[in-house]
Amino acid sequence: xxxxxxxxxxxxxxxxxxxxxxxxxxxxxxxxxxxxxxxxxxxxxxxxxxxxxxxxxxxxxxxxxxxxxxxxxxxxxxxxxxxxxxxxxxxxxxxxxxxxxxxxxxxxxxxxxxxxxxxxxxxxxxxxxxxxxxxxxxxxxxxxxxxxxxxxxxxxxxxxxxxxxxxxxxxxxxxxxxxxxxxxxxxxxxxxxxxxxxxxxxxxxxxxxxxxxxxxxxxxxxxxxxxxxxxxxxxxxxxxxxxxxxxxxxxxxxxxxxxxxxxxxxxxxxxxxxxxxxxxxxxxxxxxxxxxxxxxxxxxxxxxxxxxxxxxxxxxxxxxxxxxxxxxxxxxxxxxxxxxxxxxxxxxxxxxxxxxxxxxxxxxxxxxxxxxxxxxxxxxxxxxxxxxxxxxxxxxxxxxxxxxxxxxxxxxxxxxxxxxxxxxxxxxxxxxxxxxxxxxxxxxxxxxxxxxxxxxxxxxxxxxxxxxxxxxxxxxxxxxxxxxxxxxxxxxxxxxxxxxxxxxxxxxxxxxxxxxxxxxxxxxxxxxxxxxxxxxxxxxxxxxxxxxxxxxxxxxxxxxxxxxxxxxxxxxxxxxxxxxxxxxxxxxxxxxxxxxxxxxxxxxxxxxxxxxxxxxxxxxxxxxxxxxxxxxxxxxxxxxxxxxxxxxxxxxxxxxxxxxxxxxxxxxxxxxxxxxxxxxxxxxxxxxxxxxxxxxxxxxxxxxxxxxxxxxxxxxxxxxxxxxxxxxxxxxxxxxxxxxxxxxxxxxxxxxxxxxxxxxxxxxxxxxxxxxxxxxxxxxxxxxxxxxxxxxxxxxxxxxxx
Length: 802
Description:
CATH class of the largest domain: Alpha Beta
Oligomer: single chain
Structural class: mainly alpha
Main location: membrane
Family: Belongs to the chloride channel (TC 2.A.49) family.
Number of strands: 18
GO molecular function, one term: chloride channel activity
Low-confidence stretches: 1-9, 11-74
Number of domains: 3
Binding site for ATP: 92, 628, 632, 654-656, 764-765, 783
Distance between the termini: 22 Å
Transmembrane segments: 123-144, 172-193, 223-240, 284-306, 318-341, 371-391, 411-430, 484-503, 509-531, 543-567, 573-594
Strand content: 5-15%
Helix content: 40-55%
């Protein structure tokens, strides 16, 4: 889930560039608050990082050449990492439509019938997202079930054979080798082919829905590697689940279908062309993420709430309804296919990849005096979750610094797989917890040193996919587990899951968290029944459910969506209130110590992520102090050579340029007339939309919006566009293509006000103007994300090129 220890990070950076961060750590903060700054003036040092919106003449290549002479090896042993940096590598998505003349003309041409057609297409796409996400979930489930079953049968037969003969060390070797070899394949494809497919993908999708463009995150190749990788990691016996990656898979499916083409396969089906822009694509991706949750847990309402709570910046009633439709279709598709696969076509009893089974309210109700006990379990879950996150944080920092070569990442994954098998084997070998086979529903009962007609209870926890183990802990009758077995299992699995999270494999953290919580929750329930002399209310299954909710809530800190997911997965509304109490307590207690796991990994990757609100103590800051300056502006009628030079300037890789009305003979900048994007300028240059003299109104070729949509999302780089010396002297008129009504704020606007406007509307650029409507600065995502609430109050992060 956390994609941190790999050759290419989310930002697609090369480890050789990471040394630049050394410069970032010692550079004064960019608001003039560093050493030697005077008053409010900005101090820029020629370091290896730059402000967006500043046209600078710093030669970055010189810095990088100097660093490369210090480090002769292509991969350094240690990559220094400072979490108090924001990376300039990440770009923002344009959620706001550019309302230029072309856009307005097209919208005016759309009559009521055409609008209805577009609306129907949206519903069709949502249905297709649901169907395909459900089918991918079925494929993962069926393949994992068969491969894992085959592996467990082979190992079980081997152990049974050597228990009689002696020489169980061969069985241990077989189990460890099988696990390590399967995980090796899963890790190799992720580390060497598509590193962004590592982890569950939930932090990456959270960033995408927040408006950050993570390279390769919604590519077809990522989906293929994700699906194969998650199958191999679950079959390889790692402490992982297959539910988290379903959310990423659903998002990739949604991004692909909604565009009506595949840029990876270079196939254009000439459908859904209207939706080829960030605004529409992000809405469909949130539907895909919801469909993924729905397929994973059989929780369509939980899926909608997940998209709302964790991701989407912008929300409306129609979008909610479409997302719910996609989620419902997804869970229904999965249910239908799995029912046919299991041989009972008319019995729709498999709504999700994990089915917690029915909790009977009559047998397992709860009383008012149990509420304080549930709250106490929430506190325990919050503390254990915070411990898990803190340990994983230090492990992740170690991985970023030292385990950054792909071959090392593969070796680490194999080591974890072998250790997991060895730990499981030793615990089964040492356990003397024997239970009668009669009346139990164990898939692979392992006798080992137990008497005939009995099986080893510890083996059921390790000789199963984690999903099955969770269901067993919820529903096995009282007395199925020895307290010592549960205690040892919780302790070992906690550390194994913590070590496994962040490996270069595709895997989720939902199920391991539930499994750890279910184990200590059941142990808690058994202890209570001892104390209450076997009272009827102390059912261990009920406490296993509460423990699972507390542990998962303590690690990922989701509240609303997780309550509903747990209610839908258990098929019982009765437990809604205690589950909500447990999750709220776990979140409050956990937040007191450290952040949630996803937020922590987003922060470690230096992503400019915008939370719902600006930091509470930031009212003292205004747009004047936050904005980037000076701004690179273009004139309404500009020389082609000037445009090419600005776009080619590697030191200032800007994506938005204010368009001003000014006289070419004077240096004074006049009022703001509009805003034009880098991608639009590249399309104009590519199609050579310019004339020889400024007074000629003739445009050689009239562009349509289709030309811009066909280039989306992979616009060609400026280096690939050839402009001759004669063409450089031509003039280009930007009036028709610029957005004539960009959002602007005055210099005196407070940071929370600017933040609210930027976040709520999903902007990419916000122009700051003075009283005469002249451009004085530009606010981008990085300018706002730099400010966050730290332990000592408001902190300002540095901006780094890495």
